[in-house]
Amino acid sequence: MGNREETETRILEGVDRLIREKGFSSLGINAVARESGVSKVLIYRYFENRDGLLRTWALGKHYWNDAPGGAPSGEGVPWQERATALFEGQLDRLFGNPLLREVIRWHLSSDDPLSRDVMDRIEEKGKGLTQEFSDNLDTQEDVNAFVSLLIGGIYYLALISDKTDQFNGIPLKSDEGRTRLRDGVTRLCGLIFGEMTKKGP
Amino acid sequence: MGNREETETRILEGVDRLIREKGFSSLGINAVARESGVSKVLIYRYFENRDGLLRTWALGKHYWNDAPGGAPSGEGVPWQERATALFEGQLDRLFGNPLLREVIRWHLSSDDPLSRDVMDRIEEKGKGLTQEFSDNLDTQEDVNAFVSLLIGGIYYLALISDKTDQFNGIPLKSDEGRTRLRDGVTRLCGLIFGEMTKKGP
DNA sequence: TGACAGTGTAACCGATTGGTTACATAATGT
DNA sequence: ACATTATGTAACCAATCGGTTACACTGTCA
User: Which residue, A44, A163, A192, A193, could crosslink A80 as a Cys pair with Cβ 3.0–4.6 Å?
Assistant: First the structure.
């Protein structure tokens, strides 16, 4: 008590907990105040209103920088391998981060432009990587379409993994399912990028 | 007035309109009554409560039977062609039916078990078709993983098409984007199912 | 000591929520 | 004609929402 910074972080931690447990739909000022054990007047005093609170929460997050960094990008690495690393990284990232899934859900269902800003930051790194593919690959194929479908598939399966145990015969909550998806992605990368070569001068 | 059936359909039509315009999140009794121009007491009288209303709405829908029927299933049709028809059908279905997308959004974000029931009916036909693949194909590949990723990708891209114009360089709201996705799916089906043959005895 | 800024709480506001009670009116069967 | 049933509306209920006002306390600087 008597410490503004501490109170602010307590509030933001409350937001964090609330989103993780109930999602964005039930994220009201009263709920945050209750969860944080803090008078809601302080929320208005320190964050102006619900929007300001959400904005400082979202923009102060480090979560969005956990993009798959394991993608090998050396000169000699074949594109198939790079793509595999990218997709497997996204798979682990999505399935391993419940808060991230909650934010995607938020973006899919709300009209709040802030959700777009946050999504942009989430996708930032991945976009740079996929850009590399379409820039450097010498192929007639629509690489962007392939990538979009695969990334989208990973997103969707991660999202419904919170709601159901199985999708199309794949157990989404077990390691077995994760492994099958991982292998499937790897196999698809082989089929798609297997014969592609670097663009000539 | 004075006609129960007519009032009931007016209410259900109001639900329909409301979901299409605002989604499930803002679907309250008061909103339905306002939208339908009907006293909310009648909603309670005829449908018991919000849950009952939603249940009769969802279970009385014909929408869920518009699954891609164009999939050729004759004996001589190659599997690659069948798969292509299945996925392209799903693509058109998802992008062409806003109400369907709202229901999927609902399922992704709510805890209501009813949403699972509705999703089961939506996926029913597709599940039967994909089951055929894993049953009849003689391959070492994890066909279910491929199918799950592709179907999921179609779902996700359709969902975000309501929120953003472009994803990964694909314009989601234009015919061009639809065509590119369609071609991408076709091409992937070629890569995946191209060499698969029917299971021998 | 006193003025003053920052931190905190309780109580209230109007609007809206899901849900109910009471009552008026129209149709129906005897 | 009369009693009963179905259809409809207005008014109300407690609870919750985002947001505000008023007031008590604590420290700091003069």
Answer: A193
Residues of A in contact with B105 (CB under 8 A): 108-109
Nucleotides of C under 7 A from a protein CB: 6-11, 16-22, 26-27
Q: What single-letter amino acid sits at A143?
A: V
Q: What is the pLDDT along chain B (201 residues), one digit of tens a residue?
A: 558 889 999 999 999 999 999 999 999 999 999 999 999 999 999 999 999 999 999 988 887 877 666 556 666 778 889 899 999 999 999 999 999 999 999 999 999 999 999 999 999 888 888 888 888 887 788 999 999 999 999 999 999 999 999 999 999 999 999 999 999 999 999 998 886 666 554
Nucleic strand C near CB of residue B49 (< 7 Å): yes
Beta strands in B72-186 (DSSP E): 137-138, 166-167, 170-171
Output the CA–CA distances (angstroms, integers) from residue B83 to A15, A145, B70, in the order listed: 45, 18, 11
Supply angle C-alpha B90, A110, A37, rounded to 5.
135
What is the separation, in whole angstroms, between the first and last Cα of chain A?
A: 65
Domains and CATH numbers, chain B: 4-59 (1.10.10.60), 63-198 (1.10.357)
For residues B158 and A196, is the Cβ–Cβ distance under 8 A? no
Give, in order, the Cα–Cα distances in Å from A24 to each of A20, A29, A104, B68, B99.
9, 12, 10, 34, 22
DSSP A5-53: HHHHHHHHHHHHHHHHHH-STT--HHHHHHHHTS-HHHHHHHHSSHHHH
Nearest residue of A to residue B115 by CA position? A163
DSSP state of A174: S
Which chain A residues in 26-85 sit with Cβ < 7 A of strand D? Answer: 28-31, 40-41, 44, 49-50
Span between the terminal Cα atoms of chain B, in Å: 65
And the tokens for B44? 């309670």
Alpha-carbon distance of B67 to B139, in angstroms, equals: 27
Chain D positions with any atom < 7 A from a protein CB = 6-11, 16-22, 26-27
